[in-house]
Design goal:
Pfam families: TatD_DNase. By secondary structure, the chain is α/β, with parallel strands linked by helices. The protein contains 9 helices and 9 strands.
Length: about 260
């Protein structure tokens, strides 16, 4: 049986409301024993925490940058109180998105900085959203001395990848690498040190090639892992073991029970 960790899965999303139990069962039947669920806003945190209560999912708490218009300054003390009370495995999903049009870059940066300060104060890793903002995110990580976390859906240059790894980050790979045209992602996923890589789905988003424009789900992770193992010339079980070891190290997750 594979031992896989989906380090980024929005299991609390409404897309799973109709069949969430079955989604989790399919994932676990395929060897995906741990699903890390990040929050996206203060309003969604109760649903995120419900995933931990119902399925034992590790959770991350934070405010997603693309919803910057819904985040208020008054939400930050509430987030701090929730982090203190609930002890998530990370602060996330946080970061910067300079790809989606119409977002306020300055406001995103203010919110990101405030949440990095929380991660530093609580000694927690971060789950990072990075789109068209690799250098700016890295600048803020250095500013606050953040040395542990995951760069979700990483798609920067090899030099930027090296800089994130030097900063203590693991790099997340998922459905994007299943597309033959995703040359940069495939080069990164095959050439980077194995101890820098973790696996993820971002379900229900970033569906793999075989489910293009359909709902993504964590049960697809074994096939994604199998493709990455093939690209790297590895045995799938060995790749699963290595990436799960990386995930456990960066997020302080327990070992799988026999």
């Amino acid at each position: 049986m594979l031992d896989l960790i989906d380090t980024h899965c929005h299991l609390d999303a409404p897309e799973f409301d109709a069949d969430r139990d079955a989604v989790v069962a399919r994932a676990r039947d395929g060897g995906v024993h741990t699903l890390v669920v990040p929050a996206i806003s203060l309003d969604t945190i109760p649903a995120t925490l419900a995933m931990r209560q119902r399925y034992g999912c590790p959770v991350a708490l934070g405010f997603h940058p693309i919803y910057e218009r819904s985040h208020r300054d008054a939400h930050l003390p509430a987030l701090q109180a929730l982090i203190e009370a609930e002890r998530p495995v990370a602060v996330g999903e946080i970061g910067l998105d300079f790809f989606v049009p119409g977002l306020d870059a300055n406001r995103q940066t203010e919110l990101f900085a405030a949440q990095l300060k929380l991660a530093r104060d609580f000694d927690l890793p971060v789950l990072l959203h990075i789109r068209k903002s690799q250098d700016q995110v890295l600048k803020q990580l250095r500013r606050f001395g953040i040395r542990r976390g995951i760069a979700h859906a990483f798609n920067g240059s090899p030099q930027q990848a090296d800089a994130y790894i030097a900063q203590g980050m693991k790099l997340g790979f998922g459905g994007n690498l299943t597309f033959e045209r995703a040359l940069n992602i495939r080069r990164l996923a095959t050439s980077l040190p194995l101890d820098s890589i973790v696996l993820e789905t971002d379900a229900p988003d970033i569906s793999p090639e075989w489910a293009y424009q359909q709902r993504n789900e964590p049960a697809y992770l074994p096939r994604i892992a199998g493709l990455l193992a093939e690209l790297r010339g590895m045995d799938p079980a060995s790749l699963a073991q290595a990436t799960s070891k990386n995930a456990r190290a960066v997020l302080d997750l327990p070992a799988m029970k026999d």
